[in-house]
Task: structure prediction
Amino acid sequence: MDTTTFAGLGCAEPFLAALELRGFHTPTAVQAECFEAGVQGRDLLVQSRTGSGKTLAFGLPLMHRLSDERHPQAIILTPTRELAQQVAAELRSVSARLPIALLVGGTSYEPQLSALRNGSPVIVGTPGRVLDHLDRGTLDLATVTMVVLDECDEMLNMGFIEDVEKILARAHDAFQTYLFSATLPAPIASLARRFLKDPHKVQLGESGGVTSHADIAHTPCLVDEHQHTRALVNFLLLDEPASALIFSKRRQEAEEIAEALREAGLAAEYLHGDLVQGVRTRIMNAFKDGKLRYLVATDVAARGIDVENMPLVVHVGIPMLLENYIHRSGRTGRAGAKGTSLALVGFKESRILTAWARRGGLALDWRPVPTRDEIRQARMRRLAARVGTPEAPPRMIGLARKLLAEREPEAIVAILLSMIESEAHDGFDIPEPPRGGYGDDRRFYGPRSEGKPAWKSRSYSDQKPAPRADTRDGGRGRFKRANPKPGR
Result:
């Protein structure tokens, strides 16, 4: 079989025309691996990272197998409403008239009930809302012949696996199952053994489930935790990436980081589960459309955010698991584009990240926090590049001639540059992390002089403060005051 084109795979019209219209000529690896087995009705067990084209990997076979009958035929479960909305949009981009019932929380029941009453053949939803409809009797899975579990490991992390099992138990026994997961921890492997029958297995990551990040530069920075937000401001001011997705561990932290970025003159918003759906949708659309430069989000809220050519992902503190770090970082460096994953870590997390790098085969390129002087110099270089553009705005020519007639050219340029410079944030002065107080058996972790991160031979005890003078009274275990009060 020719897997170099969608036509060679056996993809039929009108899907071919829709793919051509979107500029999709060549299937990704996961799409090529899944198509034939999926169309034949085999179960699929697929290990592939976000951004690999997995939605069409299950979507194309699924749509080829749909009949013209108006009743539920396929159900796609996702961990978050954002991902469900993204999956529905992706399917509609290939089959515009495909009736889809989108069953997610945080939105009105009426459109969902209307779609179900009209007999939508495809249902896309989150486990909680789908189970809710099953319990209400507004959804019946008796006619469902295909079930997709998308980002199954994330559903496990969010505590949805029990709901998923309840949904599967209420579907017809002979359904075809597509299980997609970036990693395959033991509970997911157990789920696959219970519900998948002789699956076609596709594994596109390295052994152990960690997918290669060949196009992603991993650039961690060792900085005290209470300085993480200030360090982030400095990095964004120095590098000025076109956009960045910034991960925080807690909802309150996401709000505080976004506020700090705005105070530094950087356009930023936050996204977390407490926001109403309308606000979440508005912020995500602004970010995807390039109208919002920086988005700070918790892991859960960031599910479903898929932005092409995003140059930077930032971890303000690393997540609990290597797999989650890999998944976060995979939002950049897609489809051959280069990307950067910046992690701001304290001492303990630097050790964890180093162990992860050895386990996952990641090359870490440690960076120091940019200084205010470096930020100013970078801004001056960018100003000089902007001034050096060949065309001057015609409407400013008259004003320029007037100013040149009154002052020396050098003075005018200096004044204008200082006006621009004064309006910009200079960043923060951030001291190096303290190296004392960790005990005599701890060694400081940091980059070697040649730039390779490793344990330095110098121990923390080499840098601890000098011990106090012995003020014990004759060795009897009682301590005298170092500065006794007068008269004693």
